[in-house]
């Protein structure tokens, strides 16, 4: 079997603004990341993915880039970046950058030029249309709310934006634009970075603009549109001349299309699918539906088993904390954080840990809308008020759903600002940093942090956990996620109770002949049976993995 570094690797996502502030201005920075490389090394990760650190007016925290080849001053300098790259590499940690090429900032020179006149050479780098009867060209809605069209007076036309109006979409039909984008990509790769996470890439092609909006899924007209593969193949050609990893952010891509996107010869090495996490979930959720969750994960596992590769994740900077959403942030916080960890980590694919997830960091209880930074959340808050909700009701919804839950500063220790900064951070620190923080967990042998460390170590030592096939067992069970990972000489059985009730299990007869030879590999409770039993009970959020060595 061909061994590939990014298949064996574990990634760690860094949201630089909230990771570590080295200069006391309340904003995390590149030198802060540098300071914490030894922590990441000890955790055992092989690469970091850093969210955008490029020059940006920060309307969408760096996802509105005004210069692709400059570092935002708040984060440091290009020299700081180069130093970070050197030091990370010295420690054997690779560096993946965020590539935002669906849109730029409205402050990018391409756009400030494009706005000037219809004849400007950069005009066609963006998407412009005439209005109809003084109204926007279509009724399509943007992901961050409002119309996708913004009127530009100078030339009396509208430009298109899938996200905020300050994030005009690039026109992928323009040859010169693509050449400029590809040159920028090569510039970064020639610097020696190890790959990209490619932002919002399923949006680069749009449907015919005169079509009416799709009310079910507002992004449907500009998400994973037929023909997008042509652009993605061109992009892949640029990546193909480097030994790098690519992970596309692919909202709207279904498991049926998985192979095109993340197959052996897919557009990317792997993609972040959105099915198990829920696409841009904005409203308060119903009860966590374990069956659908399992089905979504297993669908992607089967779709790519032997055919491609998955990116595995439970959190990122856009969604609330997994322990609060899928686990329990009360009495079962630690055990549920560990259960979720084992559940996704041992699937087939490259696991990504989002900063703080390894501590079981939770959602924040925001006490006022003034504590919220995310522009989409502010927009929804306003909409809720318009619908007649009280401020308190609206805040409750926002507090549970905002992506700022993931963006509160990293909890390094129990001090006032969580050891993240010496001055007041740009976003409020979760007061539970007093109980949940890295310093304390480094001292406790059974902490969530040490559990992650073990998961990483075990995965590295196991052929089955990296390359083994996936097979789900007890798929109808409404509490347990049970699956088998099988390589030639090793099998691993993972049993996870995803519910807060105890759960009985009875394993299928098919694996009975292997009874008694399965040894406990890892458990999140101290007293799990050391040998696999064919029937038994798992405590709330109990998770166990058993190993069978031999053919
Ligand atoms: C997806 C990113 O993860 C998110 O943070 C951002 O707001 C949008 N793309 C727009 O770039």
UniProtKB/TrEMBL annotation:
One Pfam assignment: Malt_amylase_C
Keywords for this protein: Carbohydrate metabolism, Glycosidase, Hydrolase
Domain Glycosyl hydrolase family 13 catalytic: 13-407
Entry EC number(s): 3.2.1.1
Gene3D superfamilies per the UniProt record, alphabetical: Glycosidases, Golgi alpha-mannosidase II, Oligo-1,6-glucosidase, Domain 2
SMART domains named among the record's database cross-references: Aamy
Signal peptide (UniProt feature, chain positions): none
Catalysed reaction, written as an equation: Endohydrolysis of (1->4)-alpha-D-glucosidic linkages in polysaccharides containing three or more (1->4)-alpha-linked D-glucose units
Keyword Hydrolase: yes
NCBIfam families listed in its UniProt record: PRK10933.1
Name of this chain's protein: Alpha-amylase
Species: Enterococcus larvae
């Amino acid at each position: 079997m061909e061994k590939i570094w990014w298949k064996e690797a574990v990634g760690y996502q860094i949201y630089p603004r909230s990771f570590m502030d080295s200069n006391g201005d309340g904003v995390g920075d590149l030198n802060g990341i540098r300071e914490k490389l030894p922590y990441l090394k000890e955790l055992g990760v092989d690469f970091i993915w850093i969210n955008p650190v490029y020059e940006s007016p920060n309307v969408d925290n760096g996802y509105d880039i005004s210069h692709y080849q400059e570092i935002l001053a708040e984060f440091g300098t290009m020299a700081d970046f180069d130093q970070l790259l050197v030091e990370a590499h010295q420690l054997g940690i690779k560096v993946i950058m965020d590539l935002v090429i669906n849109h730029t900032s409205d402050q990018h020179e391409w756009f400030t030029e494009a706005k000037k006149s219809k004849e400007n050479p950069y005009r066609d780098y963006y998407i412009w249309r005439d209005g109809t009867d003084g109204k926007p060209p279509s009724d399509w809605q943007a992901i961050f709310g409002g119309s996708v069209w913004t009127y530009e007076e100078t030339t009396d036309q509208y430009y298109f934006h899938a996200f905020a109006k300050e994030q005009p979409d690039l026109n992928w039909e323009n040859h010169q634009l693509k050449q400029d984008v590809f040159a920028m990509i090569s510039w970064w790769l020639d610097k020696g970075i190890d790959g990209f996470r490619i932002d919002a890439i399923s949006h680069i092609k749009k449907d015919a603009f005169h079509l009416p909006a799709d009310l079910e899924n507002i992004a449907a007209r500009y998400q994973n549109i037929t023909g997008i593969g042509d652009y993605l193949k061109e992009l892949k050609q640029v990546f193909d001349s480097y030994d790098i990893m690519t992970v596309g952010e692919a909202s709207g891509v279904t498991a049926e299309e998985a192979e095109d996107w993340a197959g052996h010869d897919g557009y990317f090495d792997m993609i972040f699918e959105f099915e198990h996490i829920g696409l841009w979930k904005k409203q308060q959720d119903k009860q966590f539906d374990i069956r659908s969750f399992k089905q979504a994960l297993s669908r992607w596992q089967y779709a790519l088993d032997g055919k491609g590769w998955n990116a595995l994740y439970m959190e990122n900077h856009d969604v609330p904390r997994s322990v609060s959403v899928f686990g329990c942030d009360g009495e079962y916080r630690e055990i549920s954080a560990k259960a979720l960890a084992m559940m996704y980590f041992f699937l087939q694919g490259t696991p990504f840990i989002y900063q703080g997830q390894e501590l079981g960091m939770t959602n924040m209880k925001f006490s006022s809308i003034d504590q919220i930074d995310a522009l989409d959340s502010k927009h929804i808050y306003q909409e809720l008020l318009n619908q007649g909700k009280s401020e308190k009701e609206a805040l409750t919804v926002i507090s549970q759903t905002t992506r700022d839950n993931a963006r509160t500063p990293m909890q390094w220790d129990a001090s006032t600002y969580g050891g993240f900064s010496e001055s007041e951070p740009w976003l409020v620190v979760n007061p539970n940093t007093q109980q949940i923080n890295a310093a304390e967990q480094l001292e406790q042998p059974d902490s969530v942090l040490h559990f992650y460390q073990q998961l990483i170590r075990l995965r590295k030592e196991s052929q089955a956990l990296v390359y083994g096939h996936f097979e789900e067992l007890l798929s109808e069970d409404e509490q347990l996620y049970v699956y088998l990972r099988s390589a030639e000489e090793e099998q691993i059985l993972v049993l996870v109770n995803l519910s807060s009730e105890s759960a009985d299990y009875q394993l299928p007869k098919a694996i009975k002949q292997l009874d008694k030879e399965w040894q406990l590999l890892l458990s999140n409770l101290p007293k799990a049976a050391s040998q696999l039993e064919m029937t038994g009970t798992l405590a709330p959020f109990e998770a166990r993995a058993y190993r069978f060595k031999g053919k």
